[in-house]
């Protein structure tokens, strides 16, 4: 079996350090926030080249608090993409604001910056680009548009820990950057976790109150807040793992390079790294074009079934864009509104990718892909 993600291997490689860190939290009894979380905030913000970090319980909470700190609320509009995990859009809706979608660029899968300006209205308050799969969005034109229209830029960097745009770490490029520490992420907790990083002290103060019931001090509730605090144990675990993140990232990048090399003459389309990007490959996603005899989604389904039968796990990120999800039908979008997002949703297939992946496993995955009868002509 070649798993899609192998969390056990990673844990075993750092088991003693993790176990000791957890035991220290148990001994300290600082189970909610506490010294480990506070130190993680400083260390992770520094890693992102940001001044402040605000640790929370999930990546979704990070997005929610970032939006609230920026003053987003009912009647406002936030521009983002439909080809993303649903949390990006859910967090906007939590504030009472309306998500306004812009299609993705067909090469990078990130927001098509040429489409942003025409989506701006008098209600627009923020742009929320998604650094999808570990590749940054094209931030320079986004920031230029935001400056001209006086908009906030909130980066969804949930899949992009350590990714860089023109040498600058994501999360510190816009006004606020939001990360997820879900276990499968490049930097993952052993449970849930998230972080907002920013260079703005006023946003920092507001988010630290909002995550802890709006308290300025204990039992003094200045804002109507939430219970979005990070556990001390997760803070300690993430501090250990942060020390390994760069090595793990380089391993992922090396694995991706090998996939690229072995699949260079394949019928599958491999990821394109944009010239401004340091891609960190949270996901290594190939595209399965349709043939004369089979549309893309059926081709992908057949390929995925064959791989699974050979003991190779894969994923699809994401099979239904948010504008076509039943839960968001009230936004009023329809099939055909965002053709590149819809095309990607029908074609993408995520291959096994994690730092501990072996060269022999990648070779096995590629050999299996090459055995698949994909037909002769592609659409």
UniProtKB/TrEMBL annotation:
Active site positions, chain numbering: 185 (proton acceptor)
Keywords: Pyridoxal phosphate
Residue positions where N6-(pyridoxal phosphate)lysine is found in the record: 185
Pfam families from the UniProt entry: DegT_DnrJ_EryC1
GO molecular function annotations of the record: pyridoxal phosphate binding; transaminase activity
A Gene Ontology BP annotation from the UniProt entry: polysaccharide biosynthetic process
Coiled-coil regions listed in the entry: none
Protein name: Glutamine--scyllo-inositol transaminase
UniProt signal peptide: none
Family: Belongs to the DegT/DnrJ/EryC1 family.
Biological classification of the source: Bacteria, Bacillati, Cyanobacteriota, Cyanophyceae, Nostocales
